[in-house]
Each structure stands twice: as structure tokens, then as C-alpha cells.
Amino acid sequence: MPVGNLGPEEVVTVSPDQTVDEVVDQFESEEVGAVVVTEDDEPVGLVTDRDVALAVGDGDDVAQQSVEDLMTEDPVTIQEDAESIEAARTIQEENVRRLPVVDDGGQLSGIVSTDDVVATVGEQLDDIADTIEAQSPDYSP
To answer: Which of 19, 43, 68, 139 has the fewest CB atoms within 10 Å, i.e. the most exposed one?
Structure first.
């Protein structure tokens, strides 16, 4: 299954000059734990609720800082036509939990997370189990 079909259709995005306070409001209102920072529809960063929590934990007053000060720059991305197994491999190799999905022009078209990959693999395993049971009437899990 192509990566472009895995994650949510709408990606929550922000600009680098927005404040962390505004991003936290988006986390709550959009019920997400990450936003993609974009410029000209291309991903230039990623901010997660964990990033904010760690910054607050450092004792900083981050609310009025710009997103640019907190974001992970140049996030690892994946092409929308890549297969889900490639997303799993990239997540593992790059040690990330989320991958912005881009089209051939480098513009943001989605986001895929470890949860999306696990859910997809689980569905595929269910399909395989159904096939095994259908082909092997004496099989009992």
C-alpha cells in the first residue's frame, strides 16, 4: 500500500513565525500531537507535543517563542508513492515517529506515523490469516 494512503488526509501545518502558544492551541483544537512547519507548501520542520514539553521542562518560557526556535529542522520525508514497508524501514533507520509525506515536487501531501504503519501491518496480517484459514480448513489458531 502506498504511503500516501496511510495517514490522515489533512495535515495540520504552521508557519515558522507562529508562536509556540499558537501551536499548542492547534494541538488541542485539532487533536494532534505534531504539526508540520511549512514554507511554500514544503515541509521545513516538525514540532511535536514532546518538543514543547521538553522545552518547558528545561525551565524556558516557550509560549511566545517562534516555532522556528523549537522545531526539528529539515524533517525526514518520504515520497507519497513509496510502499508502507519503506515507511517502516525509514522510521526505524532515522529513529523518528512521524514522516511528512511529499509529492514529486517536494510539496507536503500527508503525514505518516508509527501508529499508521502498525495499523496497516496489522490489517495485512489479518488478511493473510483469513487466506490461510480459507485454504486450510483443518487449521485452527
So the answer is: 139
